[in-house]
Amino acid sequence: MEQVYEFLKKCGTYFIATMEGDQPRVRPFGTVDIFENKLYIQTGKVKNVSKQIKANPKIEMCAMAEGKWIRVEAVAIADNRIEAEQHMLDAYPSLKDRYTAGDGNNEVLYLKDVTATISSFTDAPKVIKF
To answer: Sorting pLDDT into bands at 50, 70 and 90, what band is 53?
Structure first.
């Protein structure tokens, strides 16, 4: 999990894919955090991505850095605890002008059943599961 976290942090921006009916939807994300030994992402409950994850919690993420790329398959599970929301906000202070822990909009999700693959054109793929 630490390797996946470090890779995504290094990228800064990653792309997350969800489904809306039978149509894939992809958008950039920038939050990733570890809280209570789980990998978390953050969004707003009013956003379409939140609604899509509620309808189908299976997501995929992709990012590239330094000639390598990562693909992450996971199930995103909402964590409505104030502590989890606050931990993310503390990791990303720039979010505090838009979100507050417990505001009803801030949403943190942890990833479970994760399969991450780090690939490059020169090395064999490295698969990480947690």
So the answer is: very high
Give the pLDDT of residue 5.
98
pLDDT of residue 60: 98
Domains of the chain are 2-129 (2.30.110.10)
DSSP 8-state symbol, 121: S
On the CB side of 117, how many CA atoms lie within 13 Å of its CA? 8
Q: Contact, 84 vs 40, CB < 8 A?
A: yes
The Cα–Cα gap between 57 and 78 comes to: 9
DSSP type of residue 97:
G
Compute φ and ψ for 62, nearest 5 degrees.
Answer: -150, 140
